[in-house]
Amino acid sequence: MPITKDKLRADVQGVIEAPEGVLKITTIRTKFNLLIPKGKRETAERVLNVFEKSCPVAQTLKGAINMENTWEITEE
Known about the structure:
Number of helices: 2
Order of helices and strands: EEHHE
Low-confidence stretches: none
Mean pLDDT: 90
Number of strands: 3
Distance between the termini: 11 Å
Oligomer: single chain
Helix content: 25-40%
């Protein structure tokens, strides 16, 4: 089953602070909500645990912004 927009939702929150007197985004928190086929939880968790290594955005921001990712998986 392909992942479509009704199967994947991401809620994203940016934390803005002024650690050196200038406002900047210091943390991005993302909560992924996935609807997956029954029996695919192990595969989904494995992918979620390594996706950041292959994500161009995460790799670009690595070291500059703290990334916090969580997920909720529902099997259908």
